[in-house]
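Support reply, case 0932

Customer input (verbatim):
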Amino acid sequence: MRTGHLAALHGAHARAVAAYRAAAGLLPDRAAPHVGIGKTELAAGRPVEALAAFEAAVSRAPRDTGALDGAARALVDLDHGDEAAELLDGLATIYVEQDRLLDAVATVERAMELAGSSWRLALLERLRGANPEPGMDLSEGEAHRRPCPRLSSSREAAS
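Our regenerated output:
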């Protein structure tokens, strides 16, 4: 993993991806190497490959905030703003459950920029003015609790 991080920091994208892939082979159940691949692919301007890597990470760790955030960024790069906003809604729910309210607010703000809605605006006001309880459902519907299928369908549409 360290080799991948260092290579990515120096802009050596191919070397970073190779190092992360090697780490993924050694740690098949871990999401972190796939998140590293996704971040590197995004930095290299390859959102389709990045989304595939983030999808692999989410399949191993469905609540990995780095993977979900990265997947949303890849979806934005692929001009799938509505899908990215829905994914960000689910990410905001996780942040509230983790008592990371500032991250939740910033995430809902990003979702609003992509796909504004009256319920997101109301949610943002609630988050800014209230102290939501951990575990509070911030989503409009159950789809936001299952990000993997959304990632799968987005990647297929991007191909």
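We compared this against your earlier run and they match. Two observations from our side: The chain has nine helices and no strands. The CA atoms of residues 42 and 50 lie 6 Å apart. Please reopen the case if you see a mismatch on your end.
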